[in-house]
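## Example record

The block below lists the input lines for one assembly entry, exactly as stored, with component labels intact.
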Amino acid sequence: MSEAHAPAHPAPTGPATAQVSPGDRTPPTAADECETLGLVAYGQLAAFTQLAGDSRHAEDFDTCLQLAHLASAALAGQGAVLDRVTALGGDAAAQLESFVGSFDNFVDRTAPSTWWEGLLKGYVGFGVAHDFLRVLAERLDGPSREAVDAALASFAPDALAAEQLAAAAAADEVLGSRLALWGRRLVGEALGFVNDLLSARPALGRVLVCEPVPTTADPAEAARPPMTTARLFSLLTAEHSRRMGRIGLTA
Amino acid sequence: MSEAHAPAHPAPTGPATAQVSPGDRTPPTAADECETLGLVAYGQLAAFTQLAGDSRHAEDFDTCLQLAHLASAALAGQGAVLDRVTALGGDAAAQLESFVGSFDNFVDRTAPSTWWEGLLKGYVGFGVAHDFLRVLAERLDGPSREAVDAALASFAPDALAAEQLAAAAAADEVLGSRLALWGRRLVGEALGFVNDLLSARPALGRVLVCEPVPTTADPAEAARPPMTTARLFSLLTAEHSRRMGRIGLTA
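Predicted structure tokens for the full assembly:
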């Protein structure tokens, strides 16, 4: 997306931590749910744009083709997410457009200087985004959750990047060290981005602290403590460490 | 796609007209069929790349989103086309990659200088490509034809561009005249591109002159004269004129 689209909600750049009060056990309002769905749909478009650009600059034809298909897959199910906004009484197009520009700060602050840095950026960035959106989705009502789950499932770029990154890091120790360092920088920026988003969008914070809708009779799930910003960041960090471990890098 | 992918079959730049002998009533060989399918699949990737780039530079958010979805749709069914190459004993990846760079000459010679020129380039270029591929597809065997038809059907950017171009040309007479002129330039380059492709790829010419596989009991179809290069170009030109007429411009 062009820089020409002015951000409707510029992300805050200050160091303030988003304040979210836990324990709100009521389900999210339709408006809060719509805003969450708008974020998911916009994330799909941002992923498409990123992956399509990566495809154009891929070093070999096979990667170019795979990235093009990943880009296409990123948009699959976006229609269902936006339809759900409409069904909840929201303005789908306006909701989507309200997020324009809100990812720019993260994108600009993590400009990769090599192909490998770019690949790791996608791996880490999409990973954190997936985990965050999944936590939010668990708190939406049934049809919304299904629409988000389908959208997230159709788009998992991990497979491609993980394999290539693991092989590259294993073959070149210096590259591996550099990428481990870059990964720490990336996750810091990604968590900062999530924090900025929660600050700029109180609706997302309200969804976050809602009790998750139980999908199983698992007593462990029922016993989970309510979500807080701190607990969210610890969850995102733990998932990131596991993800880095899968490609042989220290988080 | 990056310029870094060297063309395996550089298109000829000379003025020679492709020589195709009509009247070969035998069905295409599997190898010729594979090459045709490779062209279709590569055209899908080229369309994806073009539309994704246009999406990034769209003037408004709605167009950006629509172009992103058109880009994604352009790749739909590519897997089925490539699977068909494999089923016919071909090397799908190699077949696809063999076309890398073969569209560059057309793309470079028709660099648009405005948004409207770019939109018309897509409208004219994709239109001619669709018509050409459909003529080839009619001469493939059943499963191949179905795979190509599905790929072409999932990707029809005309609707978006036609509406916008017609409105713009109607509202601004000077723009309309300029676009009509640009359209003539574009179709000339597109037909030259088809001619270059037929020269560089004898397999495509052999498919072209095969008797079409009848899909209906229509006696008019059975009575059609065999295809020649001249007849192909007259058909492509006539379709182009109709297409320009639909947006209110003289071809």
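Chain A touches chain B at residues 1-2, 4-5, 45, 48-49, 52-53, 55-59, 61-62, 64-65, 68-69, 71-73, 75-76, 78, 93, 96-97, 100 (CB under 8 Å). The two ends of chain A are 31 Å apart (CA to CA).
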